[in-house]
Amino acid sequence: MRGPGTAARGARRMLAGVFSRLWLAAVLVAAWEAVTRAVQESYFPPPSQIVVAMHELWFSGPAGSLFLTEDAREDFGHSLYNLFGGWVLACLAGVVLGVALGRSRTLADYVEPVIHFGRAVPPPTLLSFYIAVFSLGTPMQVATIVSGVVWPVLLNTIDGVRTVDRLQLDSAQVFGVRGSGLLLRVVIPAAMPKIVAGLRISLGIALILMVLSELVGSTAGIGSLLIGAQRSFELPEMWAGIMLLGVLGYLLNAVFVTVERRLLRWHLNVREAA
Amino acid sequence: MTRIRLLRGVIGVCAVAALAEAAARLGAVDPQVVPSASAVLLRSVALAGDPVFLAGLADTVLAWLAGLVLALAAAVAAGVVLGSVPWLSTPSRIVVEFLRPIPSVALIPLAILLFGSETEMKISLIFYAATWPILLNTLYALRDVDPLAKETLRSFGFGSLAVLWRVSLPSAAPFVATGLRVAAGVALVVVVGAELLSGGTSGLGVFLIEAGSAGGGTDVTLAGAVWAGAFGLAVNALLVRAERGAFHWHFARTGQAAG
């Protein structure tokens, strides 16, 4: 029997848990607010002012459109379209090529040096080349993202496919599973944990490159708003852009982890049982 | 076996170069926009003797190195403090979780406003970008230190500083090194990005943007990217080799090669 006493004790323990996690964050935000108000330095607006700017810029729209303003729909839409467009294209290319290269050692021997070089080139060094080829706009941004994030997916897929358990492959062969059936039902599921790890790394890089490509050459998107605010010295708006990108990075990671847990539940179960 | 693989690798590189060359020569792409592989290669060789390019590259590399060293020192120190003080380690996790996802390039506009000196601006951005991978790896590694080894040392009367120095830090070092390798790559992205935007006077990014806007062909920007890639490859190879040399005991135990 759980009496009211245990419920109260449980609630108190939960409260203590929440407090022990959050007190430092709360203290830091309070200190930030207090110090910025005291110093009155225009480069560092107080966080309350930043939140107001975020609200005015993006979240003061009508309820019918989830409180998003016109600007928000335009900025977010543009940025997310480029981000996911580039990321999905790179992931598809990386997984398809990676499976082929992971299955054939010979083929991999031919192209691996090229891949390692491609990965080593810092993506921003290609930006001015892409601007010359595609001029400013979505194709330039998507090209920057794709050519920057394809490498972790490709290398992780190759590695995952190459290290599939020999026993699994042999058993599949005994049961007459071959060709595309073998790929879809044995090889790719077995390589999935490594592939997903590659997808996660590449999502982080894709966000960085999305912001960078918008900062350098774009008239739409969160990055271009950020650099526009900087050039006209609208500091609260600029900080609002930084905050928004931080929240976006946090959300992307959180969603990815949730999906990853779903997708790899069998793998985590096997590992725990072992 | 390794000779065959090397040969195949060389053939692969040559094939890609030949394909790019053919595409430019046969008019599949506009050679004014996408230069031939030979043009890029020739330009790369020429850049190796170009004092403006070399000075820019040296500026970028020095800022990168300084930022990384500072980040390594700060992140390991912070990791040790946060990892060994329980009442700080739980609440700091939330703070880290909220600061880390801010893409470091989003801070470029702020850093340009804040820092008068170009070098300071670059080093600060590199420092921010490089701290997170090293800090997180340090935190996770310190949490996974074998408790038996720590207890053994403690029961022989060693103090907590000695345990930290003789057990915790050495066993965390391979993971810190992995974090450093990740940070080195991110730092290169951030520093070149900052140079592209800052309108500064010197650096690899400045060189690239000037080459692009001066209307001088894209072969210059691609040749710059080739050198940046060569630099990235060299750094990665050097770090992997250093890790293997310094932590051979670790790789012997886990049976893995540094990747």
Sheet-strand content of chain B, in percent, reads under 5%
Report, as a whole number of angstroms, the end-to-end distance of chain B: 20 Å
N-to-C series of helices and strands of chain B: HHHHHHHHHHH
Helix content of chain A: over 70%
Which second-level CATH architecture of the largest domain in chain B applies?
Orthogonal Bundle
Mean pLDDT of chain B: 86
The helix-strand sequence of chain A is HHHHHHHHHHH
Alpha-beta classification of chain B: mainly alpha
Question: How many beta-strand runs of chain A?
Answer: 0
Beta strands of chain B, count:
0
Name given to the CATH homologous superfamily of the largest domain in chain B: MetI-like
Average pLDDT for all residues of chain A:
86
Integer-rounded radius of gyration of chain B: 23 Å
Give the number of helices of chain B: 11
Describe the global form of chain B.
Answer: globular
CATH class of the largest domain in chain A: Mainly Alpha
Tell me about the largest β-sheet of chain B.
Answer: none
**The CATH topology of the largest domain in chain A is what?**
MetI-like fold
Keywords:
heterodimer, A: 274 residues, mainly alpha, MetI-like fold, 2 domains, globular, B: 259 residues, 11 helices, 0% strand, cell membrane (chain B)
Describe this structure in words.
- The complex is a heterodimer of chains A (274) and B (259).
- Chain A has helices spanning 4-39, 47-58, 70-103, 105-120, 127-134, 138-162, 166-174, 179-216, 222-231, 235-263, 265-273.
- With 274 residues, chain A is mainly α.
- In chain A, helix 8 runs parallel beside helix 9 (222-231).
- The mean pLDDT of chain A is 86.
- Chain B is globular and about 75 Å long.
- Chain B folds into 2 domains: 1-34; 36-254, MetI-like fold, CATH 1.10.3720.10.
- Classes of the chains: A mainly alpha (274), B mainly alpha (259).
- Chains A and B meet through helix 1, helix 4, helix 5, helix 8 and helix 9 of A and helix 1, helix 4, helix 5, helix 8 and helix 9 of B.
- Chain A: It comes from Planomonospora alba.
- Chain A: It is a multi-pass membrane protein.
- Chain A: The chain crosses the membrane at residues 48-68, 80-101, 129-154, 201-227, 239-259.
